[in-house]
Every structure is written in structure tokens, then in C-alpha cells.
Amino acid sequence: DAGVTQSPTHLIKTRGQQVTLRCSPKSGHDTVSWYQQALGQGPQFIFQYYEEEERQRGNFPDRFSGHQFPNYSSELNVNALLLGDSALYLCASSADRVSTYNEQFFGPGTRLTVL
Amino acid sequence: AQKVTQAQTEISVVEKEDVTLDCVYETRDTTYYLFWYKQPPSGELVFLIRRNSFDEQNEISGRYSWNFQKSTSSFNFTITASQVVDSAVYFCALRPNTGNQFYFGTGTSLTVIP
Fold it and tell me: Rounded mean pLDDT of chain A?
């Protein structure tokens, strides 16, 4: 049973560029959440996708956008990259359709460095 | 407001010592869920436990135990007879019943010295 997978593992971009990160949820999960974890900090919620719609959004600018596909996989897009966007981006999945507890299982993350 | 506070930034213990990681939370929701996650150097957050606000029973799982006290809004985590493999950053998280967002603390970095 594959867990949450993310790609790529590492990414280096320059300021102003755009980036797309990908996530495949754990088998049987239908909900994907994205988090940004700056060095030495806890994960900060970016947004959550359920049934291909953005269900909830944290305090992040519109430069951060996402998408969920019919197979429940998801993408996180960040436009006009800033140095401050350098962080570990974590994807988490849960089975919200069948569980009220919304236990989230995390992927290994994508380390984004903006130069 | 929803908030999780982990006041201990870093803790070092010698192997086989017991260690308690503190977590204090704030929420106006009467129903909520609390979690602990472990983050080893590899970066992946590993789920340890979930506790519902209406269940104040403490829980023990092997060397791990959790003490949930609603009266003090605390959900502390104790590792008994610590091992080097326990070295990691530990996060406490809150999910209120309203909304789907997880709120994480800033984490406690635990180093177990052999």
C-alpha cells in the first residue's frame, strides 16, 4: 500500500519563476492538503482540495494555486517566486468521505530553494 | 483563535531517560482533535496519535504515552526509556471541528544522546 508520494524531491528556482509541485495521495484517500514548512517552523496550511474543489484556504497569497484531478492527485503552483518561498512543501492526504477524524498522512515533501 | 504552543524548542536527554514534550492549545471549538507527529531528518511527518476532545483518557503505546487535560488545554507526550532512534522534531497539532485546517506548533527538537 503506497503512502503519499510527492515529486520532485528537490527543486531550485530563481526569483520570478513559476513552479509546480505534485502529490499523489495514499490509496483510498480523497482529500489533499498542502503545507509550507519554513526552516525551524511548523507546517503552515496553504489549502485543501476535496472533490476537485478548493475547500479551505490558509493565509497565503493568490500566487499560490492548486488543482485536484479526478484520480485525487494534486498539484501546487506558485507564481512569481520570492526568496521567502524557499521551504519544504508537504502534501497530506486523508479519507474525508469515510472518516470524520480526518487523520492526515504526510508525504516526504519537496524542498524548494529560490535563489 | 486557534493556536498550538510548544514552548520547548530543543531538548537533549541521555539514552534511557524519560522525557516529556509539552503542548498547550487554544480553541473556541467545543469539539476538536489533537495530534502528535514525528519528523525525522528525512522530513516526512509520521503520525503518532490522535485524541478527540471528548475523550480525556490517557493513552499508552509501548514507550509512548499521552496525557490529555482539557482543564489546562494541554496534550503532553512522554517517551519512556528514550532511545537514539527517538531523535527527531515532534509536532503537536490541532484540528478544530469547524473547518479542515490543521494548526501546528513550532515543534520540539529532541536529541537522545547515546
Answer: 93
